[in-house]
Specification:
Layout lengths: L3 E6 L8 H5 L1 E4 L2 E4 L2 E2 L7 H9 L4 E4 L3 H13 L4 E6 L7 H11 L4 E5 L5 H15 L4 H14 L1 E5 L16 E5 L2 E6 L4 H13 L5 E7 L5 H12 L4 E8 L2 H7 L4 E7 L3
Parallel strand pairs: 1-2, 1-6, 6-7, 11-12
Antiparallel strand pairs: 3-4, 3-5, 8-13, 9-10, 11-13
Helix pairs in contact: 3-4, 5-6, 7-8
Length: 268
């Protein structure tokens, strides 16, 4: 392990294999489905959304300070002299506060980073920091890489039928963006395909070059998400389009019909 450990939580939606490849420790968000702990992995995402569609109640719980402290302790035992703990917007979750409590008890210095974003956006910031660390960057430079990307990320999504809670009362197929710590309404859409058309126009109008990522929750919205990804890939100003899955740690709040995209400027 590097002398700088990188830690996050499962709401960052890091793809399978990325944590091991980049040396990132992922602390799980605790999920309960109809009163029972949900321990399913990535291969059971479809089952999770089927339960949610069938009316199962789902709750999540941020990682405890103890769970985060265990991650920091393990990083120190593996050779880390410092740890970066990178998480979602503190205005939406208490995870950053838990990390700050854990940092006080850690055996090595821990820098807690609030990315001011959510979901895949957090994972993008985590990867930026981890790649900087792998290239020999200091903690300060790695923190700068994460925060800089977090400030540049833009997003758009739909979450029809989202469970009551974090997103508030969402009208069917409303086009939304997460900004300033909350979901804000952009436009009313009559269907998922109308939403995809508006998403495409919004993203392709961004000053290029950009990179983008498109994600979906349940299989029922996989086809529209694929169509969005193909449309973006057809733009010469979109250098890369990554596909990701909205896992249970996020989908518990956005629902099985949620899909969306993140994009950010990048050098040629």
């Amino acid at each position: 392990m590097s002398e700088i450990g990188v830690c996050t939580d499962s709401s960052a939606l890091l793809p399978t294999g990325v944590p091991a490849r980049l040396g990132i420790t992922v602390v799980p968000i605790q999920i309960t489905v109809s009163g029972n702990p949900y321990d399913g992995g990535e291969g059971e995402i479809d089952d999770f959304y089927e339960q949610l569609s069938a009316g199962a109640s789902v709750t999540t719980s941020q990682p405890s300070p103890g769970a985060l402290l265990d991650a920091y302790t393990n990083a120190a035992a593996a050779g880390a002299r410092e740890v970066l703990s990178i998480h979602l917007d503190a205005r939406l979750s208490g995870t950053t506060a838990s990390a700050e409590l854990a940092a006080r008890e850690a055996l090595v210095p821990v820098t807690v980073v609030d990315t001011k974003t959510v979901s895949f956006g957090v994972g993008a910031c985590v990867r930026a920091a981890a790649k900087a660390v792998a290239a020999g960057a200091s903690v300060d430079h790695a923190v700068g890489a994460a925060r800089r990307l977090g400030s540049q990320l833009q997003n758009v999504f739909v979450a029809p039928g989202a469970p009551a809670g974090r997103l508030g009362d969402i009208a069917e197929w409303s086009l939304l963006e997460f900004v300033d710590g909350r979901a804000q309404h952009l436009a009313a859409c009559g269907s998922v395909w109308e939403a995809i058309e508006l998403m495409t126009g919004r993203i392709r109008a961004a000053p290029g070059p950009i990179r983008a990522a498109v994600g979906h929750a349940g299989k029922v919205v996989e086809s529209p998400a694929d169509a969005l990804a193909r449309s973006l890939a057809g733009s010469p100003l979109v250098l890369e389009v990554e596909r990701y899955r909205v896992g249970p740690a996020v989908g518990a709040h956005t629902g099985p019909y949620s899909l969306g995209a993140f994009w950010w400027p990048t050098a040629q």
